[in-house]
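Subgroup meeting minutes
Present: P.N., E.W., G.H.
Scribe: E.W.

1. P.N. recapped why we're keeping a running log of single-chain structure predictions: easier to compare across weeks, and new members can see raw inputs and outputs side by side.
2. G.H. added today's entry (323 aa).
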Amino acid sequence: MHWMKTFDELTLEQAYEDWGEGCLEDLSITGGEGLARVGDEDNTYVVKFSLDDNQDPVDMSCDCPKATAGMPCKHMAIICFQLDEDKEGFPLAHLAELFSPPFLDEYKVRHIDFLLGLYDPDLLRGFLLNLLTEDRSLLKLFWHGIPMNMNEEPDAIIETLKDLICRFHESHFFSDFDEAEIFINEAIRLFVLGACILEERKELTGLLDFAHRFFSELDIDLMGDHWDQLELLCQTFLVSWKEALDKSEPRERQAMLRWYQDWQGQGGESIQIFNDVLEEFFSLPAFGQKGEATSASKQGETTGKSAFAWPQERRPTKTVLAL
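Output recorded in log:
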């Protein structure tokens, strides 16, 4: 445990005691970069770190007063204790050398299911985390398997989005760029699933309403530093609308246009980026509305300043980003 040399004896003792009492609230590692939250009396401190080739923590930082003053703190040591336990619990590099009792070769799915039920969920989660980190093909399989048992109803998908937002908000506060990118990619996947269902049912106005509900669930204040991710989501809306438009009939286009006209003034001013892609969509030649459609942004000029307007120098581009 070479990392122990970084800390004085008192700090290590305090860290070990707090770690044993469960002060580590959250720890996640993505692409070799780690983020953790450690509770300490009435405060919660954020620890950031990187992992070297040996999966040891390096470049650690913490927002507590001691670390801010340039000294190694107990919150960093707590993370080191946890990472050491995780490594020792699952020495994946030595899996090939492990003895395998003969009966394991005869295990069927129902046997394995029974075996999994015997063990602590945290242990299984930690093992799965390490396994998926080591094997990218398994990670891909896991990623594609996540939505397989999802309830394929738009309302259920919105509820899943709410849960995704809640878990991400509690863990990361939308503060980390990479984590926000992962979050928005998962959100896009949820939207595409719902959009495909509605398009298959030919509920084209429902597709527009679903996108509005979807975007409205996001906390604009917290996502304000990640406008490019929000633009990516809105451009996904635009792509799905255009695909539906290509397969639509004139009466369906009229229904979509009526939805847009009815939508005006119903909160569009407070989510300007969503209104921008709506305005772009309904300016397409298929609607014959160029220069005629009433836009929420024009209404905003008469009702007052937008409740959420992007700074001019950070306005998202209109480029449809590759997904």
